[in-house]
Amino acid sequence: MRVRAAPGDRRGVLSLEFALVVVGVLGALMLLAAAWRLGQTRGEMLDVAAEAARAASLRQHPGAAAAAADRTARATIGRRQVRCSEFDVVADVSALRPGGSVAVGIRCVTRLEDLTLLRMPGSVTLDVTAVEVVDRRRGGSR
To answer: CA-CA 20 to 30 A from 80: which of 8, 52, 93, 127?
Structure first.
């Protein structure tokens, strides 16, 4: 025997609406958390690039400056909460002279699952650059 609801019977509609709202709010919160974590990771990458650029600006010779930038970036990213499946460091030391500048670019490809701690497919590429001015009064070699 099949039971049919009478026309105008709205029993259970409120529960269904509540469930849909809860799912929507939880989904929005998860996306908000993912966006926040992406911004936080980008900030950490900028810090890594800035440390690498500073290390390069303290060197006297372009080869040593590029090596210092690479070494510092790799050591610093290892201490952070960022996991990169691909990690590249490019140091522009063409203006390495007192009063000049050094630019360090970092590229990190990270899985969204590692970044957000949610089961999100795919990956994201973070590209950041930091520039450090070389001290006009520096002296000695390092």
So the answer is: 93
| Whole-number Cα distances in Å, 3 to 6, 23, 76, 88 | 9, 30, 67, 66
**DSSP E strand stretches across 18-100:** 86-95
Residue 127 to residues 38, 46, 48, 104: CA-CA distances in angstroms?
A: 12, 9, 12, 11
Contact criterion met (CB below 8 Å) for 126 and 42: yes
- In whole angstroms, what is the distance from residue 8 CA to residue 138 CA? 84
Alpha-carbon span 46 to 35, nearest angstrom? 17
Q: What is the pLDDT of residues 108-123, one digit of tens each?
A: 998 877 766 667 788 8
Spatial separation of the C-alpha atoms in residues 112 and 44, rounded to whole Å:
16
